[in-house]
Amino acid sequence: MEPRGAAARRSRRTQRPRHLTLLAWLSPDGRKLLLTRVLRTFAYGYLAVVLAVYLARLGYDDVRIGLIVSAAVAGSAAMTVLWTLLADRVGRRRTVAVLSLLMAAGGLLFAAGSSFVLLLLAAFTGTISATSSEVGAFVTVEQAILPETAPPERRTWLFSLYAFVANIAQALGALFAGVAGGIALGAGLEGADALRPLFVLYAVIGLLNLAIFSTLSDRVEVARVEGERRLLGIHRSRGIVARLSALFALDAFAGALVVQSIVAYWFDRRWGFTPQDLGLLFFGVNVLSALSLLAAARLAHRIGLINTMVFTHIPSNVLLMLVPLMPTGALAATCFLARMSISQMDVPTRQSYTMAVVDPDERVAAAGLTNVARGAGSTFAPAITGYLFSLSALATPFFVAGGLKIAYDLLVYRGFRALRPPEERVARRPVP
């Protein structure tokens, strides 16, 4: 006979909301990390559209705009270094709580000030994103926690989902930038004042992240780095992480030459796109990127992580170099959309691959070091683009970025095609 209450418990399980059933393999902590990721990247989505345009409306020239964007990238790298060293000592929940407070502070400083020094300081909080995505300390800590929240066979799918929800949120954020710009104009706000409320909202989203992070369970602290005093937590995988870091730095430098805030400014300057135009463009960019991220997990299951990283990245960079050659703004936007429909497929596969080829106790350090390398590689690139724009060399950053990224792809394929993650060394099973 069935124990008393068992039927009722089974009934409650069968009535569980569908969205929870679909994510039954993911722990509550994992779901909370997806939610904080959505909130942050919504903010990053609209910030990437308006950041450089906002600075231009404050009266800054191309060089100073490039310096402020570089400060944002440098701050992200600096915070990643700091929290890679400290996260497993002071606690992962405390780490992301502090970062959430810095996010709120950065948004308020941008909203309140027009001083160049003040804006440099705000950018250097490490939580102002110029790219619509994040490679800083938030994602370093979350990237280390995520493999502990799902079964190993779901790891690449989880990283794809983590990137997918981020891109959808970025798309909505980009669309929101255009809508908010129209509302501000209707309210009589002009120039920088029309964009200032978006930075206040950015601060509010930082506080929402803080509230959610405070509810994470003790289990996020379980997988500590036992080898943290051995080359920042790396032992067996020193050579692998060092080579990946160098290559990721090259890729990040190239990508930072054409970060989304800079591309938005390029469309504004070259073709006269309005904030509403830019909002629609980057909404499309992020929706296409999001759809490609789901395809990345399926493709990686069929052809492998390294092949997916390389064989999708090379054609996307050819398209990148074609963008400034287009004769009209509409064609340039179409070419950029085509590029972004495949350019992000290497993101979840790259993250999954890195976590797979190192030992579990090396994951925080590996995520931190590779993200530090990406941050360091991209630090000065926006300033270089700003200088090139000041010389009216508007096409040069696209050509240099595309060429360097193709070189990166070839080096990754040559160096790592023989080093396969554990799940690719056995017969592949169908992905549920």
Give an account of the 3D structure.
- The two termini are 34 Å apart.
- Residues 6-20, 223-231 and 427-432 have low confidence and may be disordered.
- The chain has helices spanning 6-14, 18-22, 28-57, 62-90, 92-112, 116-123, 137-145, 155-186, 196-213, 238-256, 260-271, 275-303, 305-322, 329-343, 346-356, 363-378, 381-390, 396-416.
- Helix 10 (238-256) packs parallel to helix 16.
- The chain is mainly alpha-helical.
Characteristic key phrases:
mainly alpha; about 425 residues
Provide mean pLDDT, rounded. 83
Silhouette: globular
Helical stretch count? 18
- Strand-residue proportion: under 5%
Give the structural class: mainly alpha
How far is the N terminus from the C terminus? 34 Å
Largest sheet: none
SSE order:
HHHHHHHHHHHHHHHHHH
**What are the low-pLDDT stretches, counting only 5+ consecutive residues below 50?**
6-20, 223-231, 427-432
Specify Rg, calculated over alpha carbons.
Answer: 21 Å
Helix content: over 70%
The number of strands is: 0
